[in-house]
C-alpha cells in the first residue's frame, strides 16, 4: 500500500527520523497563512502517489507568503503529469507546505527487500535528488549497500560504515538511519526511500522527502496505517477488485485477461504481446475463486472501456474449469456485453467447462492451447 509523503514523514518521525516542519493545506489562503507563520522560504509540494514530482513541476520554492499562495493556487485542482503517472497525470487535491532548510548537500537513502538474498538491504548514495536507477546505471560504484540479517537487525558498525562512506555528520546520520530501519521493520515496509536526504549547514541530517510503502499482506497488523489509504489516488477498477479479493492491475492495452495464478497471468500477458496485442490488465483470480468471484472479475474486465476482447486462461487445479465457465456465463448474461471472449481451459473438469461454454449461446470461442488463444483474441480485438 502506498501513502502520501506527508503521511510517511509523520510515521518516520515517530521512530526518530528528523523531518522538516510542515503542514497540509487544501486551498491557497491556507498556504499563505502557513507560509507566513513559518517565515522565510517554504516549499509547496503536490501530494500524489507518484514520484518525479519535481520534474513535473509539482514542487515549488516560495520566498514569500504571496508566492506560496500563488503556487498552491496553481497546483491544487491541477492534473500533475510526472514520469511515473503516465500522460493522464494525477489530480492534486492538497499540498504540503514545508519550512525551508539551509541545504549543504543532498544524498540518497533507501531500504528494500532483496529477494535473492532473502533480507532487507539498505542503499545509500552521495548522489541524492536524482533517481537511484539512473545512478545505478551511470555510476554503480556510487551506491553503498548493507544487507541486514533480520535475526540480528541493523548493526551499529553497518550504520557507521554508511555514514562515514557518505561523509555525513555521523551522530545525526546514524540516528536517522537507525530510525528508518526501525520503522521499516516495525511497520512491515516493502520500500522506504528518502530522496533527497540532506545535510544542512547547521549539521543536521534531515529527510527532505520520504516514500514509504507497506506490505499489503501485513495490513491486518496495522489498522491505523490501513486507515491512511487514499482511494482517490487509486484506479477505481483496482479498488473494486481488491474488495472481491482479486489481484488486478489496470494497463493500457485492449485485451482483457482473466487468469488463475500470477505466473500463468504473466505468461499470458507475454504471449498476447508475442501475438501482436496489448494486455489491458493483470488479473489473477487465485486458485480457489468461487463462481461469484469469477463473475465479478469478468464484470471488472468489461467495465474497462479500452477492452475490445477478453481472454480467459485457466489451468484447473484447485479451481475447477466448470466453476470458471459458470461464472463467465452468469456475468455475460447479467452485464449484457457482446465483446468476443476467447477461453482456454485445461485441468480439472475441463470437458464440463467447455460443454457449459459451448451450450451457453454466448459470443465465446474455446481455444486449443495458449498460442491459439492469444492469436484468436488479438485478432478479435483488432
Features:
alpha+beta, 382 residues, 25% strand, 18 strands, elongated, six-stranded antiparallel β-sheet, 13 helices, single chain, four-stranded antiparallel β-sheet
Overview of the structural elements:
With 382 residues, the protein is α+β, with helices and mostly antiparallel strands. 36% of the residues lie in helices and 25% in strands. The protein has 13 helices and 18 strands. Strands 7, 8, 9, 10, 11 and 12 form a six-stranded antiparallel β-sheet that branches. A four-stranded antiparallel β-sheet has the order 1-6-2-3, covered by helices on one side. A four-stranded parallel β-sheet has the order 14-16-17-18, sandwiched between helices. Strand 10 and strand 11 form a beta hairpin.
Brief description of this entry?
This protein is α+β, with helices and mostly antiparallel strands.
Average predicted local confidence, pLDDT = 90
* Uncertain ranges: none
Rg over alpha carbons:
25 Å
State the helicity in percent bands.
25-40%
The fraction of residues assigned to DSSP E strands is 25-35%
The biggest sheet amounts to:
6 strands, antiparallel
**Shape, per Cα inertia axes:** elongated
Number of E-type strands:
18
Q: Structural class of the secondary elements?
A: alpha+beta
The count of helical stretches stands at 13
Distance between the termini: 35 Å
